[in-house]
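In the previous chapter we treated chains in isolation. Here, by contrast, the input contains two separate entities that must be folded as one system, with a combined length of 726 residues.
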Amino acid sequence: MKITTPEFKENAVKALANDNLQKALGNVEKGFIGKRQAAADALPEFEALRDKARDIKDHTLAHLDLYLKAYEEKVVESGGHVHWAQTAEDARNIVLDICRTANAKTVTKGKSMISEEMGINEFLEEKGIQPIETDLGEYIIQLRGEAPSHIIAPAVHVLKEQVEADFREEHDHLPEGRNLDEPETLLDEARTVLRQKFIDADVGITGANFLVAETGTSIIVTNEGNGDLTQTLPRVHIVLASIEKIAPTLEDVSQILRVLARSATGQDMSVYTTFSTGPRREGDVDGPEEYHVVLLDNGRTNMIGTEFQDMLRCIRCGACMNHCPVYHAVGGHAYGWVYPGPMGAVLTPSLKGVEDGGNLPNASTFCGRCEAVCPMRIPLPKMMRHWREREFEKNLNPAVQRWGLKTWAWFAQRPRLYQLGARVAMRGLSIMGGKKGRLAKMPLGSGWTKYRDMPAPEGETFQAQWAAHKGRAK
Amino acid sequence: MSNPSVGLFVTCLVDLFRPNVGFAAVDLLEKAGCVVSVPPAQTCCGQPAYNSGDRADTRAIAEQVIAAFEKFDYVVAPSGSCAAMLKKHYPELFAGDAAWEERANAFSGKVFELVSFLTDVMFVSDVDAHFDGSVTYHDSCSGLRELGISRQPRKLLAQVDGLELKEMKDPDVCCGFGGTFCVKYSDISNAIVAKKTDNVEAAQADLLLAGDLGCLMNMSGKLHREGRNTKARHVAEVLAGRLDVPAIGDSK
């Protein structure tokens, strides 16, 4: 996937001017926030569970190598295969090999952000293998030729009316006068179209919400059941997962599951929580003949032992973006790569480099709402600040900005000079504000005055007044 | 400690733009029985450098603040954002530093935001103030999420004679200020503050209050640009009854 994160500002301006997008984004604020709050309020131990979930992942990350090895052994024991991929390219080639060996023409896919990170769809298409997204949201954006704009609601940027228009154009074998006014009729139509594709597919690809070291199990949570059909009907099942998806035991996973759906959609549990352990065993009524797991690193091991390690606790619930005022304003595509919102603002520079990803950790007001709702208690603003520090160390900020900051900091460390300068500047600004008490334009202040007036200062600084009165002013 | 000594951390915005808030803070603290000093060796808490990734300058500024204020029983700021910087982030800056860690931690324990200091430390439950009209209160992010300030200002506002509190929709959602964010990403900041001023105006209050001047200047600047009716003031001005100075950005 081409990264447009360096053009984040331009992307944002376009997003702000896109009326359909702005209308669709209203649903994020309306849909997710209240439901999460209600689910959290209904569970007295919710806050304690967040602590527990954080501790489980911290422990896992401290022993990541051991748990991954244990997991691999269990997968092999149950007849499956584990493939280690250091880069996205390695992972793509592994998947292609498996598909070619299986002589695959079509591949059904459950929702997987790792597959987006790998860019598997474009790659398979290039090689003559047709990937078919089966999650409703993913199906919609595949028809539209778009990337997901949200990690759990990939088509949240699309209005219902737009989906209807896409379906009428794409499904031109269906009667013209059919009713597509309701989300249910749209879902029904997608299901009908997809049914045959599930049956025809040679390979099914799913992601993984968790990998369990104790049993060699991969787990997905879905609401549509498409994941189950993707992994049980085709002859070959491929699980795509990044290495930090591992958890030690089923008991650990069940604890984290209790905060996942509640934080994501406000459900107690997702509709389907599906466990797969190896290929079909003798006596099983269904299941794939081959079971492969592709474990992707793609830069994650470089985060271990750094101030960004905590980010690897992320379970991809989407709560941070659901509560982010910047995400609400511009949506997910503006972020320019796979992961949007606050988690993307930390992960994108971690995986793609701060040179390309540096815009994102800067585009935050540090309002802290993301950290307040993160079920894994990831200190997102703190890590965004760490990325700003790395950027500053590497001299990547614009020269004007650095010069301005350095000049200000020089004065801020010399209180007498600072106060003298402040007195003069504030008097000047106050005079410019005149009787109105505010400025519509200000030298060097267009970033502010483009959209708002600048309140003029009272006149004398507090320090000057305090000194003149030797204490309280009357 | 019947008459604790308090070092007032004025904050750079109050010092420069709205000294009335500083004097309101002094009034409230003295009325609560504190002996207030204003050390001259203060400029800013260092957030502009800290949030721009410039750790060296942040540290230098933090050392200056700690040295100037650590002799007081308490350090109080009329801003949740600056108080959180002093209280929560200074210890992080000096973590693992043999010479400064202990000093920074001891200093952190003395720091409070003004309104929560009055209610939670000085146990102020009443204010001798009068305001004929309605107000709506915006919860500034740092104060709310880093220091837990939400009920304290509402508790004291309820004691103001004649005042009616009208809550707006989403009072706890960011106003889009974010320090340098509002000029570096002005288009996004504008979209966020425009939502906020819609909510402020819909509350139909005479006055918008908050505990942070940065947010207030942002919201008041937008309210003025849009030609809205609601005026803006720092909560301390109402609690201290210092209403002679025109509202933020209003005609003299």
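The first strand of chain A starts at residue 81 and ends at 85. Chain A touches chain B through 69 residues (CB under 8 Å). Compare these points with the single-chain example from earlier in the chapter.
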